[in-house]
Amino acid sequence: MFLKGAFVDDKLSLLGLILNASVVVQLVMAALLLASLLSWMFILQRAAVIGHARKMLESFEERFWSGMDLSQLYREISSEGSGVGAENIFRAGFKEFSRLRQKGSPDSEAVMDGVQRAMRVALAREEEHLADHLPFLATVGSTSPYIGLFGTVWGIMNSFRDLAHVQQATLAVVAPSISEALIATAMGLFAAIPAVIAYNRYSAKTELLMVRYETFADEFSSILHRNVHSQNIG
Question: Which residues form the signal peptide (predicted)?
Fold first, then answer.
C-alpha cells in the first residue's frame, strides 16, 4: 500500500502504470514475468547441457578412434559412472553385444539385432535428455504474445468504460488505461522473443548432435558386425 501510494502522483511512470493497472492486467503481467523468468532459467540450463554434450562427444570420439581395445574402453567408461551421449550409446551396444556373445548365440544377425535395439533405446534417451524443456520454450514463444494481447484488450475495454463516466473525453482520461494495456503487449513480446530464438537455436543444436550420435551408432554397429562375422568364420 505504501509503495502504491508513493507512485500515485506519477501514474504514467512504468511502475506507476503497473501498480495502478486493473487486477486482470496485473495477473497477465505477473504470468508473463514468471514465464520470462522460467524461460531464461531453461535457456541457460540448455546452453550448459548442450555445450557439455558436445564437448563429451568430441572427447569420447577421440578415445574411441584412438585404437583402444573396445573391451578396455567399455571397462573404463563403466568405471567412470554415468556417461553422456555417445558414451551411453557405446556402453548400451557393447553391453548387449557381450551378453549375447557370452550366451553363445551362433546367429550373427540375432546378435546385431539385439545390439541395434539397445543402441536405439539409448539414442531415444539421449534425444529426450537434449530436448528437455524445449517444448516449454516453444509454448512461451507461441502463447506469450496472445496473453499480452489479452491484457491489452482488457485494458482498452476498461479505458472505454471509464469514458462513459466522464463529461468530456480527453487524452488525459484514457492515457493511463491505454498505457497499462500496451505494457502487457510489450511484456508478452519480451517473454516470447528470447524463447523463440532459444528454441530455434537449441533445436538445431540438438538435431545436429543427434545426427552425430546416429552416425556413431552406425559406425559402431559396422565394427561389431565385422567382429562377430569374423568370429563366426573362425
Answer: none
- SS3 assignment, position 81: coil
Domain boundaries, the chain: 9-233
Please state, in angstroms and rounded to a whole number, the distance separating the CA atoms of residues 45 and 19.
Answer: 32
Question: Residues 6 or more apart from 15 whose CB is under 8 A from it?
Answer: 7
* Residue 84 · residue 122 · CB < 8 Å: no
Half-sphere exposure of 22 (CA within 13 A, CB side): 20
pTM: 0.81
Residues 102-148: tens digit of each pLDDT:
876 567 788 888 899 999 999 999 999 999 999 999 999 999 999 99
| Alpha-carbon separation of residue 154 from 143, 161, 223 (angstroms) | 17, 11, 64
Cell digits of residue 178: 491505454
Residue 26: in which H helix or E strand, if any? helix 23-64
CA 129, distance to chain mean position in Å, is: 9
